[in-house]
Structures are given as C-alpha cells and as structure tokens.
Amino acid sequence: MSKTRVSGWSLILLVTAAVLLNLAPVPESLRALRPFWMALVVIYACLEWPDEFGLGSAFLLGLISDLVAGAVFGEHAFRLVVVAFIILRFRSRIRFFPMWQQTAAVFALLLNDRIVTWMLRTFTGEFAIDWRYWLAPITGALLWPWFFLLVSDLTQRRRSKDS
Amino acid sequence: MPVQTADQTQLFSGHGTGTLRLVVFLAIAAALMASDARFGLLDSARRHGAELTRPVYWLAGAPKRLGQWLFAYAEDRSHLLAEQRALREQILLSEAKLARFDTLVAENESLRTLLDARQRVRLKAQLVEIIDIDLDPFRQRLLVNRGTSSGIAAGQAVLDGRGLIGQIIEANERSAMVILLTDPGHAVPVRVERTGLRSIAYGTGAADRLLLSHVPFSANLQPGDRLLSSGLGGRFPAGLPVAVITEVKGDRSATFAVADAKPVAAIEQVQQLLVLEEELSAISADSVESDPDFVGPPQGLAFPPEPIQ
After folding, report:
1. Pairwise CA distance, residues B101 & A17, whole Å
2. Which chain B residues are within 8 Å of A20, Cβ to Cβ?
C-alpha cells in the first residue's frame, strides 16, 4: 500500500477523534481547559505529511469544525489556515527541534490562535473574554508531546505492517 | 499573524506555502464569515449540515450517557428508595401548591372579566432536552433536541422551572440553537417587581451575571430586587422571573446607576428546558400600562420610554 493511502486513513481517523474530543461533555470546571484538538491534528499533519497536506486541507478541516461547532462559517477555517501556514513555513526547523522546543512552538502557535480568534469574534460581535480564555493553549501544549508520540507510533506501526 | 521570515526558510520548505495562497484562503474565510454572520446567506447550508452533525453529536455524548447509565444501574436499592420517598413528598407538596394556584387562576380570570380586561396569553410550552455536548465555553449557546419538525421556530422564549433562560436563535429540522440571556449580544426588557421600573438587562458573557445600565439613581434599585420580563418588544411574555439584583453602583459619570443581576434560572445545571410555543403578538406599551397588575409611576411621572429591543 502506498504511503499516501496510509496517511489518508490516519488523517480521517485523527479528524474524527478530534471532532469527538472537541464535543465530548466534561465537568463545568474543566470546560475552559479543553485544547483545540483540530489544531493539534493540523500541526501534526503539516509536520509529517507536507506533500499531501496543505493550506487547502486545513481550510477544509476548518469548515468541518465550523459545521460541527455551530460557529460562523469560516471562523475555524481562518484559524486553521493561519496555523498551517506558520507550521509549513517553519517546518524544516520545527521538525528537528528537541521535544521541549517543539512543545514551546506549539504553545506559541496555540496562543496566537487564541489572539486570532479573539480578533475574529470581535468582528462578528459575539464575544466577551475572561482570564480562563487563555488557559486552553497551556493544556494544548502540555498534551502535544503525548499526542505526537502516540500518533507517530500508531502510524509507523501501520506503515510497517502494510509494507 | 504570520511573520515574514528570511528567504532561507522558503528554500527548505518549498511546498506551495506562498503568501499568495495564504491571502487567498484567508480572504475566502473572511468572505464566508461576513456572508454568514451579517447577511445569513449560508442558512440553508447550515440546515443541511445539521443532518450530518446529528450522529456526530450523538456519538460525542455517548460515553457520558453510558457512564450515567452504569452509575444509575449500580446505585443501591436503599438509596433509590430514599430518593423515591423524597420525590413523592415533593410531588404531594407541589400538588397542594398547584391546587392553590388553580383557584388563584380561576379567581384572577373572573376578576379580569369583571374588569373587562384582555385575556392574558395562555402559555403553551414544549419540553426539550439539551443535547449534551460542549460547544465553545466562551459562547453562551446551547443545543436542544427538537427543531422545526416539532414546531420550534426562531424567536421563541426558552425557560427552565425557575425562570427565563434565553430564546431560540436558529432552528433546524431536528435541533435548535438557544442563545442564553447571558450572551453579550442579548438583551431582555425587564421590569423591577418592587417598583415597576422598566429597564433592559444585557448579557455580559459571564454565566452568572446580567447588567442593567443607565438606571436613574432616583429609581431606588436595591440588591435583592427581582426582575421580571416586562413583555415590551413582544419577544418574551410578561411576568417571567429573569434575575435578581446583586449589586448597584454608580457609573463613571455618576449620573446613572449600574446594576449587576444574577439570572434566576440554573443555566449551568439544567437538563430539560421549556420552549414557549406561541410567538406572542407584540404587546404595546399601552397594554402593559392598562394592565391592572401593573405597578409603576403615575403616567405623568413615567420615565422616558426605553428603546425597545
């Protein structure tokens, strides 16, 4: 089986998981801590499958997220395109960063995404902010190493089984 | 926003990540947002999309439902019996209260016919359940499991057992989105129960806080005052409990008071909600003034009319 098909299936699985994790109900006190799972998926895909995954795919995943989250169409698309663009620009460096630096980069990206979201929602006029708004990038960054190791382990295993 | 970097990074990446593509995609996204948020051009796409997202919502809520089911299954018998007894007592109490309420309603109606007043709109409500998924915690929205196929339409008022929660903002075939009172884009016309003062309660984005601004100091607003919906604007029927004043302070210019209020409805704990079925015909300010229940300043001393929401 070709590499493209493996990454295609992995991507579909990852996206499904991200959508479900984004929606699964959690206790009220933990709600603000929920990381932006779809952004983690986009970061991973940009790092690992740059040939198949580009700004267009990020845009498409954004539209899916918009539909599922009941947000204004284009909001998540805008955010994920920004994330994908930055990662693809710096891909050559980030890929060879040690894990802690990679985590720091992911944190910066997610923080930037929060700022972009703030901006977008101020334009569409439905936003009020409080300090918990800034917590999600921290959990996102803390989860990144585990997410990265788990997903690359699983996809590698698939690939070796297929070949 | 992305930083323009030195050229050497582009040498290494080299996969169609040109700034032009970025600009094009961001422009498309911005155009989508504008057409959706400002002009509502994508409503039909959203309605079709709702059919696709329903199984996703079902699946996302499944682990919690399973957990609750297991928990209920494992609950021991004595606990259940105790709970049953408590519920029975509660039913008895409520029934007694209801019986009293019925006589009051009958009495009220006969008084009204004596006074030749217009019949108050009877409330017909429909029970809906919240679909247990998390949308963004910083957007004051809820998703419920009934839609246009059950007669739900945008604009209908939504309440729980204690008071007003919000209104339907968007109805799909089998689900509907509720905008909460506490959304920063939402406002409810209210009346202070004690003094009859009319004002508008704005959402703040915090789940337990509403804001009344530009209240004259002479209106004598106090913490603990109950706010009822005033029925002005015709969106919400008059007389539903909305919030309780928690704090009154002067605004920056010190000419008006600003009050914080806490919604009466337990917005973060409810599972089932009531949607009022009838959309009320607009109630004009006169009909509220001529309402025998209406307590307020004499006509000549009334405050200048508030802008209607």
Report:
1. 51
2. 56, 59-60
| CA B188 – CA B25 distance, rounded (Å) | 39
- The H or E element containing residue B127 is strand B125-129
d(CA A59, CA A163): 31
Where is pLDDT greater, at B41 or B204? B204
| Lowest-pLDDT range of A24-38, A126-140, B2-16, B57-71 | B2-16
Q: In angstroms, rounded to a whole number, what is the distance separating the alpha carbons of residues A49 and A39?
A: 15
Does the beta-carbon distance from A73 to B133 stay under 8 Å?
A: no
Strand arrangement, sheet containing B157-159:
B125-129, B272-276, B157-159, B164-171, B176-180, B141-144
Q: Measured between alpha carbons, how far is B175 from B148 in angstroms, rounded to an integer? A: 8
Contacts of A92 in chain B (CB under 8 A): 9, 12-13
pLDDT by residue (tens digit) across B177-204?
Answer: 898 888 888 899 999 888 888 899 998 8
Q: Give one DSSP letter per residue of A15-43, joined into a string.
A: HHHHHHHHHS---GGGGGG---HHHHHHH
B101: Cβ–Cβ under 8 A, 6 or more apart, which residues?
Answer: none
Residue B286 has a pLDDT of 42
DSSP label at A73?
T
Question: Which residues share a beta bridge with B191?
Answer: B198, B228
Amino acid identity of residue B116, one-letter, is D
Q: How far is CA A88 from CA A43, A51, A141, A150, B19, in A?
A: 9, 11, 18, 22, 11
Q: What is the pTM of this model?
A: 0.68
CA–CA separation, A102 vs B219, rounded Å?
59
CA distance A148 to A40: 9
Residue with tokens 């990144």: A144
From B50's Cα to the closest Cα of chain A, the distance in A is 8
In B, which residues are within 8 Å of A50 by CB distance?
Answer: 13, 15
SS3 B257: strand
CA distance B14 to chain A (A): 9
User: What Å distances lie between residue B294 and B26, B121, B288, CA to CA?
Assistant: 54, 16, 7
Give the contacts of B120 (CB within 8 A, at least 6 positions apart): B112
Q: Do A75 and B33 touch (CB under 8 A)?
A: yes
A1: helix, coil or strand?
coil
Which residue, among B94, B236, B214, has the nearest Cα to B159 in the 3D structure? B236
Beta bridge partners of B179: B141, B167
The H-or-E segment that residue B285 falls in is helix B285-289
What is the C-alpha to C-alpha distance for residues B143 and B156, in angstroms, rounded to an integer? 14
* Cα A54 from Cα A52, distance rounded (Å): 7
d(CA B116, CA A15): 64
pLDDT value at residue A113: 93
